[in-house]
């Protein structure tokens, strides 16, 4: 896992909940918050108890792992309640779990469409709903919804996924407006091509990497720590007057505004 690059003192002791926090970028996020002194709970569909034990050995504090498929909304919301019971009302929620399985438009049936939206959009909404109730109790909160630049680029190859990504942005803006009076901030983060092990194993051949790097202004590949730093910033009081925004961290592929 990557090194800490900044310290956000207000995150010490914060009650943090992360979906998909036991693998990929989510695991880096869990560790990143632990390094800040936060109390972290996370859900993962697969067994991440070994990861949680590893974090305890490395950092002296064990994140609360709750095995849960985020498409099971009652279990997801119950997990957020469990996290609150263990760590106090959740004040930082990171919707990170996603699935960008490639697919062709003409091959998509209703079952696949519903599966994709359940993971990539529906779980975000109902995760936010449960977290907001906790944040209202606490009197403040920060939600970070992880989207992607894929829909901004107009990429082909996963239209159900890019549709959900665009939906995340719209949902983020509406929730920010609705719950701003409760001192709850809601922002989205759109990563570029982050070179996780999954990406390296499945899609990151030399030609694709070179072509994508050519699109970037900054000629370095993104790594998980780039996302950790951005999420910590959005979670902390360093961004206290930032809400309803889509923050892009992609090396300069797309532009906003």
Characterize the biggest β-sheet: 7 strands, parallel
Radius of gyration: 17 Å
Percent of residues in helices: 40-55%
Determine the oligomeric state from the structure: single chain
**Which spans of ≥5 residues are poorly predicted at pLDDT below 50?**
none
Broad structural category: alpha/beta
Mean pLDDT: 95
- Annotated CATH topology: Rossmann fold
Reported CATH architecture: 3-Layer(aba) Sandwich
The strand count comes to 7
Strand order of the largest sheet: 3-2-1-4-5-6-7
CATH class term: Alpha Beta
Q: What is the CATH superfamily label?
A: NAD(P)-binding Rossmann-like Domain
- The helix-strand sequence is EHEHEHEHEHHEHHHE
Number of discrete helical segments: 9
Domains counted in the coordinates: how many?
Answer: 1
- N-end to C-end Cα span: 33 Å
Gross morphology is globular
Beta-sheet strand percentage? Answer: 5-15%
């Amino acid at each position: 896992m990557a090194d800490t690059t900044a310290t956000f003192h207000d995150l010490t002791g914060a009650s943090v909940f992360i979906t998909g926090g036991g693998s990929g970028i989510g695991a880096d996020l869990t560790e990143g918050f632990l390094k800040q002194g936060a109390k972290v709970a996370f859900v993962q569909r697969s067994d991440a108890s070994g990861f949680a034990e590893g974090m305890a050995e490395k950092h002296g504090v064990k994140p609360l792992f709750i095995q849960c498929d985020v498409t099971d909304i009652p279990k997801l919301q119950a997990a957020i309640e469990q996290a609150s019971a263990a760590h106090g009302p959740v004040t930082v929620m990171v919707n990170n779990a996603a699935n960008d399985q490639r697919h062709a438009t003409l091959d998509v049936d209703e079952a696949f469409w519903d599966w994709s939206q359940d993971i990539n959009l529906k779980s975000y909404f109902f995760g936010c709903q449960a977290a907001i109730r906790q944040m209202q109790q606490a009197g403040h909160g920060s939600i970070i919804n992880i989207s992607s630049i894929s829909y901004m680029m107009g990429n082909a190859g996963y239209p159900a996924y890019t549709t959900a990504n665009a939906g995340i942005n719209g949902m983020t803006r509406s929730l920010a407006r609705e719950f701003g009076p409760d001192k709850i901030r809601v922002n989205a983060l759109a990563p570029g091509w982050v070179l996780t092990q999954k990406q390296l194993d499945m899609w990151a051949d030399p030609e694709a990497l070179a072509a994508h790097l050519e699109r970037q202004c900054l000629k370095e590949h993104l790594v998980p720590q780039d996302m950790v730093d951005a999420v910590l910033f959005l979670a902390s009081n360093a961004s206290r007057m930032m809400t309803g925004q889509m923050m892009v961290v992609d090396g300069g592929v797309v532009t906003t505004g």
